[in-house]
């Protein structure tokens, strides 16, 4: 399958997280026994070439890198796409509106084993999601649709993964459950809950997805485990999060 480059714990869960530098990235992957994806955020670099250089460096030491937007910033969509097409990183984060451009660019560049996810927003209404997550549509309109409509549109486009952002921890967990059920029903294999996830809530968030029938889950745990003074991802907190995941998988 296309996502064979991503290692999933018990074929169910891989953790998406950040690292300050290559050394920290190697350490976090060791803590996770390889069941993870280290994010490189395009927003943190002045040029596409600068970001490409870092992604390629990381790929010398790990099987994949998750090219990110940076805080879900839709204005980064094209930059992230270009970085992914130049590096074949294994995983790239995208807006709903930019996902198919990215997928086409990857295919045309020979990058056939990189997963493109598709970002949708919770709405506060169970069973409804917002698909207007691009740089213009996010500001000017609210494209709110039934969750099954959004999932079926992704299935039409043969996209394998939905990124559900911003979860704000467990605030939108009821909406996540319904989304996971729809993904399982229509055959979207990967769900990526993102935003406000920490050591304490990562396990119940993962459990909701698995109990709903999800094939695979990629929770994003970012700032909550980063040392505010050093900028390094805290390995002890990461191990706690990983141990908590093991309890529910």
Write a structural description:
The protein is α/β, with parallel strands linked by helices and 249 residues long. It has one domain: Alpha-Beta Barrel (TIM Barrel), CATH 3.20.20. Helix content is 38%, strand content 17%. Strands 1, 2, 3, 4, 5, 6, 7, 8, 9 and 10 form a ten-stranded mixed β-sheet that branches. Helix 6 packs across helix 7 and helix 7 runs parallel beside helix 8. The protein is globular. It starts with 14 loop residues before the first strand and ends with a helix. The mean pLDDT is 97.
Keywords:
single chain; 249 residues; alpha/beta; TIM Barrel; ten-stranded mixed sheet
Secondary-structure blueprint of this entry?
Elements: E1 15-18, H1 22-31, E2 36-41, H2 48-59, E3 65-68, H3 77-87, E4 90-92, H4 99-108, E5 115-122, E6 128-130, H5 137-140, E7 144-146, H6 147-156, E8 161-165, H7 173-186, E9 190-194, H8 202-211, E10 216-217, H9 235-248
Parallel strand pairs: 1-2, 2-3, 3-4, 4-5, 5-8, 8-9, 9-10
Antiparallel strand pairs: 5-6, 6-7
